[in-house]
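task queued by scheduler; priority normal; single chain, no ligands, no partner chains; default sampling; output format set to structure tokens
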Amino acid sequence: MTVSDFAGRGSLRAQLVRIGAFFYFAYAYLVILFGIAYNPMFLVYAALLSASTAGLVLSLVAVDVDRLSSQFRLGFARRTIAWAVIAVSVTFALLWLSRIVPGILAGKAAPGLESYTTLSVQGADLSLVIPISTLTGIGLLRRRPIGYLLIAPVLIFMATMGLGLVGVVVAMALMGTSVGIAGVAPAAVTGAHRR
């Protein structure tokens, strides 16, 4: 609420944080809507995805992109941050592809489909998050307005997702369950754990 208030008053930092929050919520509700078994909350998930996506789009168009690059300090670690975002994107692309491609080549289902009809987290990452993050990193390297517009929201998304992953790992350790990152990421988004 406070961030939206400051964003409404024209604070560029608040606008970028708000975009990052809406990006995270839109992603989370997309994965929940298509990744969790149908239940009485289905219409609520659909409404939350719709509201988050609308908030994301409205927040993006509210930013004055012409003034963006001038708002970043000269000492801003543009190249380092851009390459870090690209590296995280490539790492997750390779992680998901290493789970999916062998199953396709062998004519078998990918790991993680035991009780699901599709890989919603991997699908959302491969079709939305990874391309957006990679293009953001490239845009920032090339000093394009889109890179400056999306770098803070992408970093906020990655940080919130990272905190979710850490939380799931800690909870699973406390429960005596072990699972690799490929199993933790979907659990962090959906709040569900498969044994």
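post-processing summary
- The chain has a mean pLDDT of 85.
- The two ends are 37 Å apart (CA to CA).
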